[in-house]
Amino acid sequence: MDCCLCDQSPHFFRPRNSICMSCFEGAKEILEFASRLDLEEEAEVEAKIAASQPDSLKNDKKSTSKTFTKPIQGKGLADAIKHIKQLEQAVGTASKQISYLGALGEAFTEGFHADLELATDDGLSIQVHKVIMATRSSVFRTMLEMDSYKEAKNSRVRIPDISHVELKHLVEFMYTGQLRLEALQDHSPGLMFSADKYDVPLLIEICEAYLIDTMNPKNALEVLEVATRLSSATALKDAAMSTIVHNSESILFSREYEDFAMKNPLLAVRVSQSVMQQLKSRLFLKPASAQ
């Protein structure tokens, strides 16, 4: 089971409320160790206080200590046990949730009672369920509300501008709410574009966070091109433009930028303007002695 503590996946798409048994046992041991330290420290403090008091007050202090310290210690242990039980319940609940979503994923993989076919431009298709597609995407919901799709038992929809592999990853996410790391590594720009087109907000957030986290001079032009085509990707666009500007000498004189400028002339002008603004800022901030 994926764990929100030890899972090797990037932080932005780790499960939030699941914990593996190894981490659970470790947390349990830490709580028990902390309780023992609290008890030892409290006993040491009481001993020092008792040693500093006159003999006439020691008996009173002992009775007072017995009255007040034991309930406090018991309460601390009770809280620790309560937290452990809460962790156990969280593990059980997360396991049930994963199993429940896994059943939906199995329905997609096996094609149980599929009633909709999604066809890509490369001639391949995927069998899905109308109710899942309509629930996960407002675009599909509007499409499937049309009478022609309502009346047909088995319908076929053409999905342009997306490869069969990317469509498969998109549909898998819509069924399970999960995305494999390999899919993000290989198809995050295309998946983000498709998620924006078909209105799958959570997938947009995951892809955007991954692209920002892995931004570098080699992929900045592609990311900027994708971000410009999306309805809402301001943070991603700014991150890509900043990367290009700060690496302008290596990017602007590359073959990739020539191809980029041919396909996106207006966007290339904006890149040039941003680079010029950056150069002006550096010139104005340059010390007078260096000039």
Automatic annotation (TrEMBL):
<comment type="function">
    <text>May act as a substrate-specific adapter of an E3 ubiquitin-protein ligase complex (CUL3-RBX1-BTB) which mediates the ubiquitination and subsequent proteasomal degradation of target proteins.</text>
</comment>
<comment type="pathway">
    <text>Protein modification; protein ubiquitination.</text>
</comment>
<feature type="region of interest" description="Disordered">
    <location>
        <begin position="50"/>
        <end position="69"/>
    </location>
</feature>
<dbReference type="Pfam" id="PF00651">
    <property type="entry name" value="BTB"/>
</dbReference>
<dbReference type="InterPro" id="IPR000210">
    <property type="entry name" value="BTB/POZ_dom"/>
</dbReference>
<feature type="domain" description="BTB">
    <location>
        <begin position="114"/>
        <end position="183"/>
    </location>
</feature>
<dbReference type="InterPro" id="IPR011333">
    <property type="entry name" value="SKP1/BTB/POZ_sf"/>
</dbReference>
<dbReference type="InterPro" id="IPR044784">
    <property type="entry name" value="At1g01640-like"/>
</dbReference>
<protein>
    <recommendedName>
        <fullName>BTB domain-containing protein</fullName>
    </recommendedName>
</protein>
